[in-house]
Amino acid sequence: MLLHTIFVIALAAESMTAALAAGRRNMDWFGVCVLGCVTALGGGTTRDLLLGHYPLLWVEQPAYLLVTIAAALFTIAVARVMERLKLIFLLLDALGLVVFTITGCIVAMEMGQPVLIVIVAGMITGCVGGVLRDVLCNDVPLLFSGELYATVSAITACVFYFGLQAGVPIDLIALIAMGIGFTLRTLAIVFKIEMPRFVYSPVRDQSSKR
C-alpha cells in the first residue's frame, strides 16, 4: 500500500517536471499533457512492450493516465510558483527514479525473469521516461550527460533484488532500496557528482594540410 501511494505521487511529480519542460519550449496544452504522460508512463510502457507484459499498466489502470494528465494541467496553472521550487522537483524526480525502478523489478520478477533481466527492467522503468522527455524536447538526455542516474537505478535494483533473495520482507527491502537510491541521487545533485565523460577530439592529419 505504501509503495503504491509513493508510486502515484511519483507519477504526478514526473508529469509535472515534464510539463515545465514543455512550457519552456512553448508547447500547447495538448503537448504539455502528452509530454507529461510520456515521461511518467513511458518507462513502464517500454518495459511491458519488451517483456511482453500485457495489458500495459495505463491500459489496465486508466486512473494512472488521468493522474498524469491532471498533474500536467495543474502545472500550467501554478507554473510561476513551481519555478521557485526547482530543488524540490529534482528531489521528486529522484524519488520517481527509485520507485519506478523497484516497480519495474517487481513486474519482471513476477514474470519469472532471471536476475539480469530484472535489473534491466527496473532501469528501463526508472530511466526511459526521462530519455523520451528529453528527446521530444530536443535535448541531450540527462541519462547520457554525466548525471548519476542510470547508475543509481542499477544500484537500487540490485539492493532490492538481492535483499529479497536474502529473505528480507518486500515492504522493508523496498524502503531500504528506495532510501539508498534516493540518498545517492540527492548527494549527486547537491555535490554535482557525475560520471566520467568520454571526450574525443580527433587530431587532424598534419600531412593533409600540405
UniProtKB/TrEMBL annotation:
<feature type="domain" description="Glycine transporter">
    <location>
        <begin position="91"/>
        <end position="162"/>
    </location>
</feature>
<feature type="transmembrane region" description="Helical">
    <location>
        <begin position="172"/>
        <end position="191"/>
    </location>
</feature>
<feature type="transmembrane region" description="Helical">
    <location>
        <begin position="115"/>
        <end position="136"/>
    </location>
</feature>
<feature type="transmembrane region" description="Helical">
    <location>
        <begin position="148"/>
        <end position="166"/>
    </location>
</feature>
<feature type="transmembrane region" description="Helical">
    <location>
        <begin position="88"/>
        <end position="109"/>
    </location>
</feature>
<keyword id="KW-0812">Transmembrane</keyword>
<dbReference type="GO" id="GO:0005886">
    <property type="term" value="C:plasma membrane"/>
</dbReference>
<feature type="domain" description="Glycine transporter">
    <location>
        <begin position="7"/>
        <end position="79"/>
    </location>
</feature>
<keyword id="KW-1133">Transmembrane helix</keyword>
<dbReference type="InterPro" id="IPR005115">
    <property type="entry name" value="Gly_transporter"/>
</dbReference>
<keyword id="KW-1003">Cell membrane</keyword>
<comment type="similarity">
    <text>Belongs to the UPF0126 family.</text>
</comment>
<dbReference type="Pfam" id="PF03458">
    <property type="entry name" value="Gly_transporter"/>
</dbReference>
<protein>
    <submittedName>
        <fullName>Uncharacterized membrane protein YeiH</fullName>
    </submittedName>
</protein>
<feature type="transmembrane region" description="Helical">
    <location>
        <begin position="63"/>
        <end position="81"/>
    </location>
</feature>
<keyword id="KW-0472">Membrane</keyword>
